[in-house]
Amino acid sequence: MSMSFSYKAFWAGHEDLCSHLAAKVPAVIASVNYRLAPEHKYPSQYDDGYDALKFIDAQNTAVLPAFTDLSSCFIGGDSAGGNIAHHVTIRALKNADNFNKIRITGLLALQPAFGGEERTESELRLTHAPIINAERADILWRDFLAVGADRNHPAVNVFGGGSNSEAAKEVENLKFPATLVIVGGNDILQDWDKRYAEWLNNCGKEVELASRVSRCSPCFLCISRSARV
To answer: N or C of the chain: less Cβ packing under 10 Å?
Structure first.
């Protein structure tokens, strides 16, 4: 089974993509709807993703085809969805005893939305990137986070502190799934995505980094309604 989180506001074809994947690959695809900021701030989106996993685990025979293999579950997402996929995976692994059938065996992070207070080379260079630049992204993070929190919050900067951080120790002690990170060549967050892959590798996890040379991040943080134009 594959569970997908989209960035929601711009990609009207996300449901079409999920239908296409379901027709082409031997997997059952579940697309998750989640609440948006600023009306619903952190951690509402992670709660919704985790609750969707719990619902499928408990109601699998009622909502999924009988042949669905929940022992091989891939979680994936693009942009904000990639961020959500990471955090939902972490929460599910930490609470593995609460799941009867679901076992997460893979994570797909397609241009995932991570960041921090530091301005990376790609954020400084791609000031005229299509759709969104660093300043616009800052607004979206503020919509998502609690008042007073900055971009070094662990929801955003998941690898803050590097391989010696508490987050790294947590990941090292979890059975984190094999991960594919796809980076967009015109995405302002590409440096953060590369750091994410490097961080997972340093934590001893299986990770592969792939690049889409000419791609930008069409929305980035559609955890927030403010991303809509």
So the answer is: C
> Please, what's the largest Cα pairwise distance for the chain?
50
pLDDT of the residue at 225: 54
Q: Is 2 a catalytic residue?
A: no
The four Cα atoms 192, 186, 86, 104 give a dihedral, to 10 degrees, of -130
Assigned token pair, 101:
């059938």
User: How many Å apart are CA 222 and CA 81, to the nearest integer?
Assistant: 8
The one catalytic residue in 2, 31, 79, 217 is 79
N- to C-terminal Cα distance for the chain? 33
Exactly one of 78, 143, 187, 193 is catalytic; name it.
187
Task: Provide the sign of the torsion angle of the four alpha carbons 140, 184, 13, 65, taken in this order.
Answer: negative
DSSP codes joined into one string, 53-84: HHHHHHHHHHHS-TT--TTSEEEEEETHHHHH
0.85 exceeded by pTM? yes
- Is residue 16 part of the annotated active site? The answer reads no
C-alpha distances (whole Å) from 95 to each of 72, 84, 175, 205 are 17, 16, 12, 19
CB atoms near residue 98 (< 10 Å): 14
193 half-sphere exposure, CB direction, 13 A CA radius: 33
- What is the reported pLDDT for 155? 96
Residues of the chain with pLDDT under 70: 6-13, 130, 213-229
